């Protein structure tokens, strides 16, 4: 009862004197907002009205709103970081086995099935392009039904595909059907779209660090798992390696989906653990106001120059790198490197990539992302020049080491493209906008690796494929340097567009 009288403004028992009245209002100002916030959290959510009420300051008979609060003030770990941990664990295995690990399967499958380098590259490059081809549909499905609705079925489909591949692939046709129709499709749906879109929902201010942590751990998967799978292939067979991959998907990846949540709002939180939405200080008619941010729609993003420059830069970057990475072990072999040493060097690229992504993710929340992208793509172009002139059997092996370092640094910045997309255009349509970008350059993911394979089949080396890669990486660097962040939109602008007659004159 005493607490009720303290919090209920209508009672006057505690107002026997001016001092007691001041004390009552002071206690109300401290306790009433805290009680509202605690009650809201206990019942699973912070609605806008409760959140606003929880941040009122009562000064005698006047009430004013504070600036938005950007941290909870508690020691409890924000659930978004648990999401980063779960997504990173899944990406560790998926990257080491599929996205990075496919490099060790290229020569093994080629030799076992008696295929040419161009035939082998065609299947593996179509697999990489598949994620782009399905991008618009997958992005729409994620925005409509949530990330988890695609994550779990994708993992199960990929696992079944690995088991089928290990036991039933004995021809080029079955190789293409199983790898593209099950393994690649499942991995693309689950990991190329759902994971990144999921983390983008959980962060605003720390978006670059969160997404780059995910990407860094995925590179660590390449560092650790690629040499291990190479040893399994050399000492047992590539079929045992692929069968083990299917088991890893079910045992090591699938359980982490139990921790996955689509949006922080689903469990009563806001991005970054904030307790109020971000506001923009805007001025009109001689005054300034704090207006709530809103995300871009797909149509609005299409009207900005930055979106098209990001699309062009991402496409040129993929054209430059995918043709090299698909054939990286055969390329290194053509430079005099043994197969196991080539696998170890490839793992070293992914290890440097791990460190690069962590550092660049931290810097991406502090520095302009376009500048980071431009600088790192320039380094990657220099790395391709070193690969072109390098050789393992003489003093030029130093150039191959430089390539490993620069490629690890340069490829690590690719993830900043998606962090920039989320920063520029928000959370609501991120998956759709990302899917459209991946779809736009999906054809290049097929053309460049096939061209590299054709060059090897006809000339015995990959030099003809390295020359355009250098130019493409340089062009991508220029595109990213020219990207300018679009203006942030507000909720008031959306209301003005819906009801223009309500705009102040």
From TrEMBL:
<feature type="transmembrane region" description="Helical">
    <location>
        <begin position="79"/>
        <end position="99"/>
    </location>
</feature>
<dbReference type="InterPro" id="IPR050327">
    <property type="entry name" value="Proton-linked_MCT"/>
</dbReference>
<dbReference type="GO" id="GO:0022857">
    <property type="term" value="F:transmembrane transporter activity"/>
</dbReference>
<dbReference type="InterPro" id="IPR020846">
    <property type="entry name" value="MFS_dom"/>
</dbReference>
<feature type="transmembrane region" description="Helical">
    <location>
        <begin position="306"/>
        <end position="329"/>
    </location>
</feature>
<keyword id="KW-0812">Transmembrane</keyword>
<keyword id="KW-1133">Transmembrane helix</keyword>
<dbReference type="InterPro" id="IPR036259">
    <property type="entry name" value="MFS_trans_sf"/>
</dbReference>
<dbReference type="InterPro" id="IPR011701">
    <property type="entry name" value="MFS"/>
</dbReference>
<protein>
    <submittedName>
        <fullName>Putative Nodulin-like protein</fullName>
    </submittedName>
</protein>
<dbReference type="Pfam" id="PF07690">
    <property type="entry name" value="MFS_1"/>
</dbReference>
<feature type="transmembrane region" description="Helical">
    <location>
        <begin position="341"/>
        <end position="360"/>
    </location>
</feature>
<keyword id="KW-0472">Membrane</keyword>
<feature type="domain" description="Major facilitator superfamily (MFS) profile">
    <location>
        <begin position="84"/>
        <end position="487"/>
    </location>
</feature>
<feature type="transmembrane region" description="Helical">
    <location>
        <begin position="209"/>
        <end position="234"/>
    </location>
</feature>
<feature type="transmembrane region" description="Helical">
    <location>
        <begin position="462"/>
        <end position="483"/>
    </location>
</feature>
<feature type="transmembrane region" description="Helical">
    <location>
        <begin position="433"/>
        <end position="456"/>
    </location>
</feature>
<feature type="transmembrane region" description="Helical">
    <location>
        <begin position="398"/>
        <end position="421"/>
    </location>
</feature>
<feature type="transmembrane region" description="Helical">
    <location>
        <begin position="176"/>
        <end position="197"/>
    </location>
</feature>
<feature type="transmembrane region" description="Helical">
    <location>
        <begin position="372"/>
        <end position="392"/>
    </location>
</feature>
<feature type="transmembrane region" description="Helical">
    <location>
        <begin position="240"/>
        <end position="260"/>
    </location>
</feature>
<feature type="transmembrane region" description="Helical">
    <location>
        <begin position="150"/>
        <end position="170"/>
    </location>
</feature>
């Amino acid at each position: 009862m005493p607490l009720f009288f303290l919090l209920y403004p209508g009672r006057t028992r505690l107002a026997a004197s001016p001092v007691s009245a001041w004390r009552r209002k002071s206690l109300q100002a401290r306790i009433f907002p805290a009680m509202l916030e605690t009650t809201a959290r206990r019942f699973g959510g912070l609605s806008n009205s409760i959140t606003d009420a929880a941040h009122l300051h009562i000064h005698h008979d006047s009430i004013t709103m504070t600036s938005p609060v950007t941290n909870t003030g508690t020691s409890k770990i924000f659930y978004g970081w648990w999401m980063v941990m779960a997504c990173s664990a899944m990406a560790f295995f998926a990257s080491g086995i599929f996205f990075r690990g496919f490099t060790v399967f290229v020569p093994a499958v080629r030799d076992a099935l008696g295929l040419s380098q161009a035939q082998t590259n065609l299947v593996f490059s179509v697999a990489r392009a598949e994620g782009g081809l399905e991008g618009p549909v997958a992005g729409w499905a994620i925005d409509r039904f949530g990330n988890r609705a695609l994550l779990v079925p994708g993992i199960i489909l990929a696992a079944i595909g690995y088991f089928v591949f290990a036991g039933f692939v004995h021809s080029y046709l079955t190789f293409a059907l199983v790898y593209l129709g099950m393994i690649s499709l499942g991995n693309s749906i689950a990991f190329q779209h759902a994971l990144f879109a999921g983390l983008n929902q959980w962060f605003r201010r720390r978006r670059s660090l969160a997404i780059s942590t995910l990407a860094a751990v995925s590179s660590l998967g390449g560092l650790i798992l690629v040499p291990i799978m190479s040893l399994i292939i050399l000492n047992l067979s590539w079929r045992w390696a692929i069968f083990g991959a299917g088991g890893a998907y079910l045992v090591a990846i699938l359980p982490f989906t139990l921790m996955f949540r689509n949006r922080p709002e689903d469990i009563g939180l806001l991005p970054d653990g904030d307790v109020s939405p971000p506001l923009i200080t805007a001025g009109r008619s001689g005054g300034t106001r704090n207006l709530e941010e809103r995300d871009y729609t797909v149509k609005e993003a299409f009207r900005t120059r930055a979106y098209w420059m990001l699309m062009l830069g991402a496409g040129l970057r993929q054209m430059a790198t995918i043709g090299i990475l698909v054939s990286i072990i055969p390329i290194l072999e053509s430079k005099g490197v043994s197969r196991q040493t080539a696998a170890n060097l490839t793992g070293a690229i992914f290890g440097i990539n791990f460190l690069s992504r962590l550092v660049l993710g931290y810097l991406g929340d502090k520095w302009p992302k376009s500048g980071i992208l431009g600088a790192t793509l320039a380094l990657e172009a220099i790395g391709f020049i070193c690969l072109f002139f390098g050789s393992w059997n003489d003093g030029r092996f130093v150039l191959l080491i430089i390539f490993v370092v620069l490629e690890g640094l340069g490829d690590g910045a690719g993830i900043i493209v998606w962090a920039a997309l989320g920063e520029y255009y928000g959370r609501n349509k991120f998956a759709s906008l990302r899917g459209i970008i991946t779809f736009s350059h999906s054809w290049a993911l097929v053309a460049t690796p096939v061209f590299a394979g054709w060059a090897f089949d006809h000339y015995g080396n990959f030099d003809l494929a390295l020359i355009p890669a250098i130019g493409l990486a340089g062009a991508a660097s220029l595109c990213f340097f020219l990207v300018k962040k679009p203006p942030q939109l507000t909720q008031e602008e959306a209301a003005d567009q819906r009801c223009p007659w309500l705009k102040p004159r």
